[in-house]
Structure formats: C-alpha cells, structure tokens
Design goal:
Blueprint (H helix, E strand, L loop, with lengths): L39 H4 L7 H9 L8 H6 L4 E7 L11 H11 L5 E7 L7 E6 L2 H5 L15 H7 L3 E6 L1 H10 L7 E6 L8 H11 L6 E6 L4 E6 L4 E5 L5 H4 L20 E4 L8 E5 L2 H8 L5 E4 L3 E2 L3 H12 L6 H14 L2 E2 H22 L4 H4 L2 H7 L7
Parallel strand pairs: 2-4, 4-5, 5-9
Antiparallel strand pairs: 1-10, 1-11, 2-3, 6-7, 7-8, 9-10, 12-13
C-alpha cells in the first residue's frame, strides 16, 4: 500500500522575485521558497500574529503579563550572563552559539543543524545550509545582518529523512517554523535563537556601511552594543566605534526592512534557548533559557563558560521618551556632541536588563508608530498584548 503524499508536497514554491503573500512586510524568511507555502496564511508572522498559542505550544504556557521580566523577555526559567573560557577564533563574540551547535551534533543529539553561511562571492550574503559537520557549523559563525531565507531548506529537511534537528534562527523565521514543525516528520526539534532587530537588504547594508564606517569594504561584522556605540570589526583585527547618536539618521531612517519596522519579537520568544548580548554587561553574552529543551542544550557547554547573574541598573524611561521624536524627525547630532552624549549616557544610563528594556522600548514605540501610519488596518491584530503594554508607557506623536 502506497501512503499518500502530505498535502504540502503538492504545493509549489513561489518563483524567485514573485510577489510574496505578506507583500512589502515580507521578511524573506524563505518559507515561501518551499512547498510549505501551503500553510503561509497561518504560519507567516506578518499575516497571522499568534504569540499566545505558539508560546503555549513551545513552552507549555504563555508569558505572564503581570511579571515585568516576562512582558519584556518572554517565557523563561533562567537567565544569565556568560562567555567562553576559550573563545572560538573568528567568532563574533566568544562563540557560544557555534559551540552549542557543535556539541549538539558531535554528541548525537541531532543529525543536522540549520544555520547560515555566506556565499563565496560576498561575506554578507546569507547562504542557509543544513550543517552535518563541525566545520560546516564553524563556517556559519558571525551574524549576517541582512534578511536571510533560513527556512528555504525546509524541503531538504523533510526529504533528508532526518529525525532530530537543531535550527538556529531569528524571530520571524522561528514563528513560521513553530507553526509547521509537526509537519516536518521530526522526532525532536531544538531551536536556538538570537535576538534580532533592524535587518536590511544587501543594498541597505551597503548604504549603512558607507554612511557609517570609515572603511566599509573591510568590515567583517558589527553590532549595536551596550555602551551606546556601534562596534565595527575590520579585516585587520582593528575595532571602530561610532556613537549611536552620531548615526546619520536622516539618511538611514528608511534603510531598515519594513518587516523589521513591524516586528515585536526582538527577544525571539519562541526559541528554546536565546543567546544574544543586550541584557548582559559589556563583553558578555545574555542567555535566556525558556524551557527544559533549552536547558538541555545549555548543559552541553556549561563547563566551557564563565557565568554571572544578570543585573539591572538605571532608568530608561526619560531616554526612551526623548528618543521617540528624535528618531521620528531624523535628528542627527554633530559628532562631537554625539560622542559627549554617548560618554554621559554610558556613565549614568541604563545597564544590563535595563539597557535591554531601553532597546526594546525604543524599537517597539518606533515600530508601533510605523504600523499605525503605514498599516493602520493591521495595528490591533498584529501588535501582541505584551508589546501594547510596553508602548502604553510612552507618549507617541500622531
């Protein structure tokens, strides 16, 4: 007896360049590049915001909106700051994400790891792969700050016959993945997430680099850091810093993808384990364990890590309120003033979890305004209750 094909295999992926169901809000996650497009109306983060149901599915409960830490950081059972004893050479920070992925593979927890390398032609052009060796995982180290079609490999996952898989991804990708994970034929799915905000197209990235860095062609990676500076790492090993307040906002205001301007999942609330930097002291990584599956992954590398408890210091509210009209009007300070402001805020401004809340507040208020002005019909259904609660703290312009 021949088993019938799953219904999604009868669907056809969209052709490259064809209009996407989410239209201008498409985050190019790769979902529509597969036959899973059959489920896009339910799965796409920009067509069907469904945080409560997917949190319940992923973690066994929804976030508690009476608990401030859960409003901001999602369902979790543990948080800490960490860094590797022996950093991986060439990693963006110390290599915690790569180390977890390698241990998951070499210890037989999974048969493959969905991660993102870069193309041979362009260090910033993402190339999603299913890694099956440590070398392939290491080739994916360093964040790709461009929109990335991670889920374009979903067909390969099902067709490979793999039963245990680790997926590394960002919020919009993980929401779609969670929505169809029971259709992949897996026995066990592990999700290792990174926080994500303000991605750009490849052309948008080039504009940002040329507008901001002293040497755009030699930038290896960059990050907006807790000291209120953008840190650029160059090919020669040197580091360049540019204060947030010195960015040419008037030229960069429209460079970020509309999907990122409409996203409220900065902290990747549906991953099992999240590794980022925003809630940790400078030089450390911020780890958020959301469930026992996340703890299982973290346990594999705990003996490789220095850890310390998370901390929180300062008050973000005034800085956030002042940043709303400044961003809205595209205000750009002279560099001397930007450096001075950066020094003052670094000394007396929010740190640790309060810095993370500052960053979330700043982006959520901006994104709420973007949706209100550009997609008012989506505002109520698309903005999750936790985001509405955060935004309600501030006075927004019309």
């Amino acid at each position: 007896m021949t088993l019938a094909q799953p219904p999604h295999r009868k669907a056809k992926a969209l052709r490259p360049g064809a209009p996407r169901p989410a239209k201008e809000l498409c985050s190019e996650c790769g979902f529509c590049d597969t036959y899973y497009i059959r489920y896009v109306k339910d799965a796409c983060a920009f067509l069907n915001q469904q945080f409560p149901a997917l949190e319940q599915q992923s973690h066994g409960r929804q976030r508690d909106l009476a608990q401030d830490n859960e409003v901001y950081f999602g369902v979790h059972q543990d948080m800490m700051a960490a860094r590797k004893h022996q950093p991986i050479e060439g990693a963006q920070w110390t290599g915690i994400v790569s180390s977890i992925a390698i241990e998951m593979l070499t210890q037989g927890k999974v048969e493959g790891v969905v991660c993102v390398q870069n193309t041979e032609e362009d260090r910033f052009q993402p190339k999603p792969v299913i890694a099956t060796t440590p070398e392939e995982i290491l080739a994916a180290r360093v964040n790709k700050p461009t929109l990335s079609p991670n889920l374009s490999v979903l067909e390969q996952v099902e067709q490979s016959g793999m039963k245990r898989l680790l997926v590394i991804g960002v919020g919009c990708q993980i929401q779609a993945l969670r929505a169809v994970q029971d259709k992949l034929g897996l026995e066990k799915l592990y999700v290792l997430g990174t926080p994500c905000v303000d991605n750009v197209s490849r052309a948008g990235l080039q504009k940002f680099l040329e507008t901001t860095s002293r040497s755009p062609d030699t930038v290896v990676h960059y990050e907006f850091m807790q000291d209120f500076r953008v840190h650029f790492k160059h090919e020669d090993g040197s580091t360049e810093t540019v204060p947030f307040f010195g960015l040419k906002t008037n030229q960069l205001k429209d460079v970020f993808a509309p999907s990122c301007m409409s996203c409220f999942d900065y902290v990747n609330g549906l991953a099992d384990l999240v590794v980022g930097y925003m809630g940790a002291p400078f030089g450390w990584q911020w780890l958020v364990v959301r469930n026992q599956t996340g703890q299982e992954m973290l346990d594999l590398v705990m003996d490789q890590l220095d850890t310390q408890p998370v901390m929180s210091q300062g008050d973000r509210h005034q800085a956030v309120q002042q940043s709303i009209p400044a961003y809205d009007k595209g205000v750009t300070l002279p560099m001397w003033a930007a450096k001075l402001m950066g020094l003052v805020i670094e000394r007396i401004g929010p740190k640790g979890l309060e810095y993370a809340r500052f960053s979330i507040d700043s982006h959520f208020t901006r994104n709420y305004l973007y949706l209100k002005r550009n997609h008012p019909e989506k505002l109520d259904a698309h903005v999750p209750d936790f985001a509405k609660q955060i935004v309600s703290q501030y006075q927004l312009p019309d």
